[in-house]
Amino acid sequence: MKVLSVASEIFPLVKTGGLADVAGALPAALARQGVEMRSLVPGYPKIMTALDDVAEVAPFEGGRILSGRAAGLALHVVDRPDLYDRDGGPYTNLTGQDWPDNWRRFAALARAAETLTRTGDWRPDLVHAHDWQAGLVPVYLKSRETGIPSIITIHNIAFQGQFGAEIFGDLDLPASVFAMEGVEYYGDVGFLKGGLAMADAITTVSPTYAQEIRDPRFGMGLEGLIAARGAAVHGIVNGIDTGVWDPATDPHLAATYTVRTLSRRKRNTAALEARFGLEPGGPLFAVVSRLTWQKGLDLLAASVEHLVGLGGRLAVLGSGEGGLEAAFQEAAARHPWRVGCVIGYDEALSHLVQGGADAILVPSRFEPCGLTQLYALRYGCVPVVARTGGLADTVVDANGAALRAGVATGLVHAPDDADALRAALGRAVALYGTPGWAKLQRNGMKADVSWDASAAEYAALYRALAGGFS
Length: 470
Ligand code: ADP
Known about the structure:
By secondary structure, the protein is α/β, with parallel strands linked by helices. It has 20 helices and 18 strands. The chain has a nine-stranded mixed beta sheet, sandwiched between helices. Strand 6, helix 5 and strand 7 (150-154) form a beta-alpha-beta unit.
């Protein structure tokens, strides 16, 4: 069957977050399930430059829809220089402010998807929209009676694409769509809201997050709609690219290793110590993260003394909120040789951290899926995570029963609770150096964090909705 995926970013061409990784990885994973997926993306300069084998599919609102290939991906591209040919990011200008016409830019992306269901010689059997930027896809497909089913995936419900009601007249939608069953959202126009109301199915990136967003503490205003759509909501956990993230071949490591040569990790640990200015001795805890409230790292910053008191060490790689950056820099100054901090985004160093640290800390307040704990599992770096969203679904806590059954892969603690985080650090230090710790490492490395199982779930859902495909 043929599926059109609609996303505002796609790895490796344009990336600001996990959405790009998923959009970039799904086509190959789904090909193995017999699904032919093409991706519709905006014609940002980086995409226009990379595009090969270009052909025009259809004229589109003063511009064109193109087909082509880039970075191994089969793409459809909305060539509208008036909307996308700009310096800056996919959503913001060079100074980081949202483009004021984002609603226009992403409504056009959704209309282009609808156009592709009735023009050109490649017509999708189903359209898969990602996040608020593609939120109007189900709205156009339904209100224009294309008969093509749609799925919308929520990667983070905190980002909703909410705009003033005055834009509605420019969306070229029937007036009846400005209603509770459509895009109307607290008197405004909600792109994600409209997609959630009108898609045939809703998915999000872990089963636990799919439950959590029915609750006002996580749903951010959309909990009622999510609960009402109950049976149409599915949680499908993300996978990782096990070719890019493979400790046996990773070029960013000082020493590559496998589950049978774990002792070689020590060379990576030594490289990390040099990089973060740390002395040897004691378990090395690490963070690789955006430094934001969502990630719960203020709780860690408040627990540094406790961690050091336990004999632990801490390496932080991250960037984000000024207050958190300063808190970790100050902690490093207070505890030279025990706490180190690199402020910035460094893909290569993030690999070395996973390959050399003893444990990765992910104390998030909410986490739709989370990728860093999946990399950690694959790299024998024990994840210590909050019990929320995808973290809860992918890490098995080393409680007595799980240890006895030999299935534990990490440590899990209550979210948004510094005492619970400190208790988990204590449990980690107690296990460190015992055979139980090595067992956690080995179990993690053997866990399936690839896309295979999740791609099969997406394919089954597509087939159930599009019907008649085997
Ligand atoms: P989110 O999408 O909320 O930021 P995820 O865990 O899903 O969280 O994905 C974060 C991704 O960004 C991971 O691939 C992680 O390794 C990477 N990352 C985050 N901060 C940094 C950093 N400072 N340097 C390098 N990689 C980072």
